[in-house]
Amino acid sequence: MHPPKISVAVNIRRGHGEIFADEWYDSSRNSGTIWDACATTRLLTWPEDDEAAQENHHALTDEICKRTFEKVRSAIAEAFTEIAIEVLTRERKRG
Fold it and tell me: pTM of the entire structure?
């Protein structure tokens, strides 16, 4: 029994991987999960009663997360593209 047919892109390009990487980062920022992941590392302690320190905490975590993404964006895009090609080529052969 074969899985139901689905439509897939004829050519899988690096642009697909770049869209994926950017959307992953944007959606993790919008949902707050990127800051949750950063908080879980316990690199910084949340300053409970100091508004200026809280603003600095946000600035530092924003910079860490943004620069980390910038450093790995190309690798994410490349990995996504490579794996998408592998998976979809395999599925086309089953077709």
Answer: 0.85
Distance CA 52, CA 88 (A): 50
Domain span including residue 74: 64-89
In a domain, 71, yes or no: yes
Residue 88 — very low, low, confident or very high, per pLDDT cuts 50/70/90?
Answer: very high
Residues 6+ apart with CB under 8 A from 26: none
Contact 5, 95 (CB under 8 A): yes
Is position 76 within any domain?
Answer: yes
Domain tally for the chain?
A: 1
- The three-class DSSP label of residue 42 is coil
Q: What is the pLDDT of residue 56?
A: 97
Bigger pLDDT: 60 vs 10: 60
Establish if 81 belongs to a structural domain: yes
**29 occurs within a structural domain:** no
